[in-house]
Amino acid sequence: MEAKEAFLEKRLSHSDCTKSLLPVRDALDALNGKWKLQIIISLMFGNKRFTQIAKEIPNITDKMLSKELRDLEANELVKRTVYDSIPVVVEYTLTEHGHSLRELIDVLRVWGVKHRNMVMGREVVES
Prior knowledge:
By secondary structure, the chain is mainly α. The chain has helices at 2-9, 14-31, 36-44, 50-56, 62-74, 96-99, 102-120; strands spanning 48-49, 78-83, 89-94. The two termini are 26 Å apart.
């Protein structure tokens, strides 16, 4: 925590700002859009087949889910395993890299509850 506090207290130069933007931009590129974090959260609760993920995420189309899973796989956040069985079974799993997002997602969830309470002016119960 000390390194984080030192970073925030230090007066940053333009060069420091530019260096800080690149990794944030990379993260946002990997997680961009309405669906990717929802898919990752779904997979944090265990390995799932395509239809299981689709049922857990309201309003996502099969086409969009397929595209987002391919993007997450390309960014090494999700692993797709095809089992040689009849019928063929395909399972999606979070990689270790995908699991590394847990803390970020927890912080986003807490912030989201606070933000919703502030903007909507009513209490949201955390689950």
